[in-house]
Task: structure prediction
Amino acid sequence: MSSIPSPIPVLSPLRMQRHPRAVVVLTVALLFAGGGLMMHAESQIQVLGLLAAFLAMFAIADRTPLGQDVVAICGDYSGFANGVAFVCALGLIAVFRGEHYTLLMLATVALFSTACIALNLQLAFAGIANFAGAAFFVLGSYTAAVLTAYAGIPHLMILAVSGIVTGAIGVVLLLPVLRTRGHYAALVTIAFGLLLRSLLEVNDTLGGPQGMKIKGFSIFGLDFNRVSSVGPWDVSFYLPYAVLSICILAVAFTLIRRIERSWIGIALDTVRSDETAASVFGLSIARWKVVAFLIGNAVIGVAGAVYGMMNGFVTPNGSGLGDSLLMLSIIVLGGLGNFWGAVVAAMVILVIPEKLQAIQEFRLLIFALLVLGILLFRPSGILPRPIRDLSRFIGRPGADA
Amino acid sequence: MDVGILAQQLFNGLMLGVIYAMIAVGFSLFFGVLDVIKFSHGDVVTVGAFSSLGAAGLAGGLVALPPVLALASGIAAAVAIGALAGVIIGRVLVLPLRHAPGVNVLLATLMAGTVLREAIRLGVPNGGNPKPFPALLPGGSIKAGSFSAGIDSVMILAAGLLLVLGTHLLITRTRFGLAIRAVAQDGEVARLSGIDFQTVVLGTFALGSALAAFAGCMLGLYYREINFNMGVLLGIIGFASAVVGGLGSMLGPIIGGFLFAGVQTLVVVALPVSSAYKDVIAFAAIIVLIAIFPTGLIAERRSERV
Result:
């Protein structure tokens, strides 16, 4: 009965080689070195060169047997690769410890990646189109702003409360949609985004168009905004925020990856791909949609709260439809359901317009056109999510008892 | 309340309602023939408004034509460019993606809307700021007690009502309308009985988009100001009207549009202090209405094919 296929099928010389973990470490380290250079690059030529190098690497990984082997090895050791990536991210922070701007950008990319992974849970797994990602992000910031201003509760708890508030508002928003079929979630979330933005702009207690100030994060008596040195090194006060953001990304990544790999993920896939079949098998469509929407928005809210605290202020500006579409561009460019794709795309979409000032004004137009092209010519995204293959569980002892 | 003010509010509500209905009819048409929701529809309204502004400005400013001809060229430009935009979106995006997951079509049309919006913002000189719209209709007003309506507004209202009625007649009385209804009922069978599927679908897109573009032109004439992102709001309201009235039916979106305008006017009348919250209440109303009427007032009859 035990016919579990070996995790590494024999395909090519490289796959049989004896140090697959070394391949993983080298690949991940190379990618992070490139990413770090990209964030640090000063001149436009450097940025364009790095972009070209990334495109070349992507082509190699996609087209040549060697590249495909490396990708497959990283896939086989994905847990290990993720661990290496975490260490590499901390390494980047250590390298850029004194540079405010690079660290700010690194933390921003990490927080937006967190939000986009959460959006992936909603759109790619559960099939709920959430066109208010940026609104929930800003909602998390506003919750943190109000709580730091008016309530003396520990900041770690403020992050949790921000998550709970955004998650709860999301569920209230989803309730009307559960009575419908089709894509009314899109309409309701767009309406919510516009509602929130006009509400924040006219409401004086929340600061109106000027927004609100937010106190910095502090934990166990350590005020993040006052950090200026760690041991013998002078560091930027963005350093603790960068570490916190990377940790939040890691937690969200692990959590949502666990959900995807568990029976919850299977239930979500079923609900998305065929509601009728799902209900025939006794899955509650409403319940699974609520679960995905709740967890997703809670994660977005926490990321938004940290982002607000890092910046020290929040305005209604970021909550519009444009920014929500930017988040969706990230997950489509990265490939629906592909988490590392989302991280890479977040870096490309957030960093490149900052570095190439010439396209800053045109970024929405460019990304909208890019997304249109991808939807037309590569509908599952640049790095598609692999189809779930459960065949290897079928023969497992006890599975069919 | 005095009868005149009541009539005044009723008039304002009708005015808004006819514009919403014109936009909502498009949503319902597209949903009928292809079962897709085209979220770039609101931005087609903006495209119509800006192309009529451009054409009218060109005709009135450079060539110094009388306002009537400037108006005519403005309307012609709005209708032509709007219909063209609709056909292009239908041909390039919606038809090829018709068998893709629904979310992809949704995202594609939203991104197409973003492209239109950003193209206007970046392409029109000083496009990020509101643009004044010329007064091309005759001035003067009709007064009765405390009721007063500009002649231009009356003309806009009459034109809108005529167009909505005309579209209704087109759908119910002509061969083209018959073809649209056949495709909406069952595209495969319609094709088998010799209907050119693609022409009908693209014709429907042209019709719906031309109506939306004309609504954009009317909005410019009515408010005397247009904005590159006015389509977002109008698209949402138009879609909500179509949903509340019943997607896929013809009368539904018209009723929905007037209902929606009625709610908005009522909010402004009942809560004059909070006009800043008008949009907030409008969006909240959309969310609540979907909760109350998930399939619309005139529900589409459909069964699940398993």
